[in-house]
Amino acid sequence: MPHSTATASTATAGPATATTTTAALPVDGTHHLRTTEKTARWGELPHAGSAPVLTVADGETLTMDLVSHEGILPDQGRDPVAFFGEFGVPERDVLADARAIAESGLARDAVVLPGPHIVTGPVAVRGALPGDLLRVETLSLHRRCHYGIVANRHTRGALPGELPQDELELTGPSLLRGPTGTVNAFCTVEAGSGGTEYGVLRCTDTLSARFPLNPFVGIMGVASGSEGTPLSSIPPGVHGGNLDVKHLTCGSSLYLPVQAEGAGFYAGDPHFAQGNGEVALTAFEAPLRATFRLSLVRGEAARRVQGRVGEPFAETRTHWIAIGLDADLDEAMRQCVRSALAFLTATTGMDRQTAYAYLSAAADFEVSQVVDQVKGVHCLIRKADFPGEL
Fold first, then answer.
1. Which domain holds residue 224?
2. 308 part of a folded domain
3. pTM of full prediction above 0.85
């Protein structure tokens, strides 16, 4: 196999019963990039003409302090201290960088943001050129706080004509309605036995839903090849971006086709947890300290990784992950099948019809998300099904 499994990993950090402070978290990378008005953009993605905020060498590691957009958006009052205070979060527990971004000029004059996300970067990788692949290994993910938001907004989500309902009284103790029809669900983090952490959503005064945390970074991408109007942060594409594939957690690798000199890597949209589909519009959105290794894959090795399809591709310790993207969910599924076929035929040497049969018998196709304009489907191919070194 021309690409190896990511080996470094770290779990989320900090006990759930205590407030996580950024100062107490380790910096696992050689470089450390904080999210500020000068290193981030709000709602748009870097392109070929975007000046890098940092340059790293091929194979170097980078720690990024990622800021969640939830709690600082205009429809949430653009004041995270006041917003999270409604849920009982004291001012001292609201991250300073989130407060600074909310008060900055990043989008102060914009009537409508091109997208909601705070995107950190771009980071140039020396020597990266179009035709290369940028391999993004997620090495560690640390919680930067102990709470976050799941938001549902008008005309968004899987049921835009049904939820949220203006006339429906909100009885859930974790819910808060915003001024423009937004419904915000507040989640906290709780420690379980053996150090396992869980998200907690209060459903009624006597019932709470408790679900495992699975932190990952929703937006990881490279600069688009165009120097024109920046792309919105909402739809994913060949550049990667808002893929929202929940399997891209510690130990995973994402392969992105480089489209501009230097690659222009960026990240954002951190999650503590997400279900496939992300049906309400967002998942458990909350800030992370993420460490990546950025390295280049070239020539025949790059072509074999993707099966010559020129689209994002991923892997974990146990699976290869083909990705399909389209505004139509049926077409996203078809694209994902084609991507999986291309990978298998290029990597194993099996013919396309045999690969098609294998996918039908053994692979799992999952809906990544249906809420980002361009919908996503990913295919999980078990590495254990192909014993030996391919």
1. 32-299
2. no
3. yes
